[in-house]
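Kindly inspect what follows.
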Amino acid sequence: MISMLVDKLNLLYLVEPNTFVRRLNVKLKRDWNNEKWAEKRFIVNHDYKFIYCPIFKNASTSMLSAILSISNCRQKEKLLSGSEVTVRLYVDLNYSLASYSYEAAQKFIEGDYFRFVIVRNPWARIASAYCNFFVRLLQKGIVSEFAKDVSGFVADNIGTSDGARHVTFEQLVEYVCATEDSQLNKHCLPQYLFMGDTKFDYIVRMENLDEGLKYVCNTLNLPLKLPEINKTRYDSSKFNDEYYRFSSMPACELASFSNGLPDYRAFYNPRLIDMIGDRYAKSIQLFNYDFV
């Protein structure tokens, strides 16, 4: 009870006064429906007139920090020097369309605001989620809740589990493919779901991130500099020499790699390639991706 109260007080500290008034009006008006959850997450900037759609595992943490850095927030230096979780919370609370009525948000979306999103190769995105939540956190001595959930799935559906520290990439893929979107960890949700029904003016591809963001910045005269946050270090040599080997290697063994983790392709065998291809078929078709 006391911890919940503390959490709420901390959230109030992050909400700007004008946002608090807007959110109060939104709560009273209640004109958003549950089907529009994606649009509620869009980030709006009125100074440069853009709308950004954040998608987990697609540089969204870096983007939210960059957006905060160009804002008029009086405490942005303090926030940017703190945790990435706090930055994400602040930007979401104060700059997302959820702080506006649905009617107002639709005017921004349908108006002359520049709408953009960052998408990513689905095979690479799932491998990145695994490296981040199952391997890199282990290197810090942390077992994520995500890893515990997948370990529980393995125990219940595949057979005996060796525990969250031993989850393999293959087991994560089994979880992703057997779990409905409504129950799936948010970092593995299909990318198109985050975009709602909105038509975007520009789609940036993670594979050409610098080039894509340069276009966005030139279009908006935007002084945006993307910091490197939550970035996994990869060692591409492991892909060439040890192809397919890593799909069944436990996370705790991968965590011992000091020179970087394998390229995403090294986590896949033909069966896993097909499984992810089927699971994310709509995103693959919409954004014209293939495995390589």
